[in-house]
Amino acid sequence: MSDTFTPKSYDGEREITWCPGCGDYGIIAGVKQALAQLQLPPHQAFFVSGIGCGSKMPDYLKANGYLGLHGRTLPIAQGVKLANHDLKVIITVGDGDSFGIGAGHFVHALRRNSDLTMIVEDNKVYALTKGQYSPLSARGWISSTTPDGSIETEFNPLLMAITGGATFVARTFSGDPKHMAQTFAKAIQHKGFAFVDVLQVCVIYNSVNTTEWYRPRVYKLDDDATYNPRDYNAAIQKAYEWGDKIPIGVLYVDERPTYEDRVAALAQGALVKQPLAGYSQATWNEFRATMM
């Protein structure tokens, strides 16, 4: 009899220390529900994160996890996927981590189309470091580093993801757990680079983009029978839409070979399962011991 996985199957052992009311609670619940929907065994999921409030997520999950450096989650995740492309590799990272110091890695991950799922916890502020403005903060945003308001134009991650080469681009909302879980499951199932922007509330440092602000504005693309996520131009238009109406759901889907499909060595199976040509098992064990 095979195991049946529920959201509790992915509960970690550490106490969660996010602020009460933080949108990350909804996001981690959505992640667990998505994994349960897919019946993905914990040992077949690998979470990679960086620095930030939401980047603590691997600590709170029963799954493989790696906490990387600020802005460096994507190259680490790509390395994990190349080493064992049988794993479902999922990146959980904040908007500052992703699009500040990590922006260069984001661009190249898009064009490579590695088979990864990138979940961005988008609270539009550097919350862990006390509320500085982030690349996704609106122009005019007042913070400790911009007391007169930010003079910069905010970055549009959905637009960059679509034009840069992602083959799955979606947005969801931390105030809608069911929609989050469904969106995450679709992203994880997708073969190729899947990008999900999560509109997330920060109850301490963002008093503008609250649950009450988002709820009357977000609308689901799934409710529009005329919308086709395979229409590139329509997806571009939706990526620009912000303000009184904010679309959530799958904006864009495409299929093309993944980066791993093009690596000849992986055709023989995952690298971790292949014999080490020219090296004995004893040599490998000795090397591995030095890394533990």
Question: What's the quick description here?
Answer:
With 292 residues, this protein is α/β, with parallel strands linked by helices. It contains nine helices and eight strands.
What does this structure look like?
The chain is built from 9 helices and 8 strands. It is globular, with a radius of gyration of 19 Å. The mean pLDDT is 92. Helix content is 29%, strand content 15%. α1 packs across α6 (177-189) and α5 packs antiparallel against α8 (232-240). An 8-stranded mixed sheet has the order 2-1-3-4-6-5-8-7, with helices on both faces. It has a single domain, classed as Rossmann fold. It is of the alpha/beta class and 292 residues long. The longest helix has 15 residues, at 24-38.
